[in-house]
Automatic annotation (TrEMBL):
One of its GO terms (biological process) is isoprenoid biosynthetic process. InterPro entries: Isoprenoid_synthase_dom_sf, Polyprenyl_synt, Polyprenyl_synt_CS. Pfam families: polyprenyl_synt. The keyword Transferase applies. Keywords: Isoprene biosynthesis, Magnesium, Metal-binding, Transferase. Belongs to the FPP/GGPP synthase family. GO terms for cellular component: chloroplast. GO terms for molecular function: metal ion binding; prenyltransferase activity. It comes from the Eukaryota. This is Solanesyl-diphosphate synthase 3, chloroplastic. Its cofactor is Mg(2+).
Amino acid sequence: MLSLSCFPSVGLGQKAILGPPKRRLVFVCRRGARCRVSLAQNVDVGNGSSGSHLDVGTSAGPSGISVSVALLMEPVSEDLLRLNNNLKTIIGDENPVLVSAAEQIFGAGGKRLRPALVFLVSRATAKIAGLTELTTQHQRLAEIVEMIHTASLIHDDVLDDSGMRRGKETIHQLYGTRVAILAGDFMFAQSSWYLANLENIQVIKLISQVIKDFASGEIKQASSLFNCDVTLEDYLLKSYYKTASLIAASTKSASIFSAVSSDICEQMYEYGKNLGLSFQVVDDILDFTQSAKNLANRLAVILPREISLHQSFLP
């Protein structure tokens, strides 16, 4: 597993090689704090390694067994079906234009990674706590997380002037920038309302911080645009704000609703944080190494190879 604790130990000119034997991330420090991230295949620590493009599709997990994304999500497939149905009604019908815009991105599909992680952690920790079924709070949390993620995507597409999202036109392309911004705001507001109704101050604080982190991450990214001397620490901080913060808060919140010990809650937070950072690092590499038609399948690379959820906890 990719962990923040791995990075400070890399000295000048040294390599930190992370990941399974056939495909690892290599962090090479140059000029003190500045580091270069590259991809290596069939890494030999003693003799160096040769660069290679990632391929997509079904990948081998840590034990060498072939693993697919669908297999990883199978324990919560029914939970995700229920979530998809609920998302269509949870946004309400007060403003037809905003509702239509929100439905456009919900209907664009996607792997629902973040709510899937909420359900996976919820079921793992619920079993530890002796619960036989997920609570309404678990289910609502997954919906809130997906709404927040969706809002961030709408705003990201405006900032990046992206024309397509998951094979469909983006909101600002269809409805204009003004409606897109308002649609994102609407989703943030709606998710905040449902969050408040969970009536758990610890979870409210965790998820509210995520929305603040989104803005911080966008500002950091904009301020370092085309800067080739960004340090690894700054890159990871930006990645935490933009990706890992939501996943970490989500996995911890799921365990809080399972009423497990504070130690397990913190472990779930660290798991979510490291998963989010790993996801973003590999995602960024794939932006440079994959063609556009393969980017939709990047989860098939990221989840099985870089991170595995400990399924021994699952019922």
